[in-house]
Amino acid sequence: MKVAVPTNGERGLDEEVGLHFGKVPTYTIVDTQTNLVKIVENTSEHRGGVGLPPDLIAKTGADVMIVFNAGMRAINRLQELGIDVYTGAQGTVREAIEALQDGRLEPANAQNACKEHEH
Question: pTM for this one?
Answer without folding.
Answer: 0.91
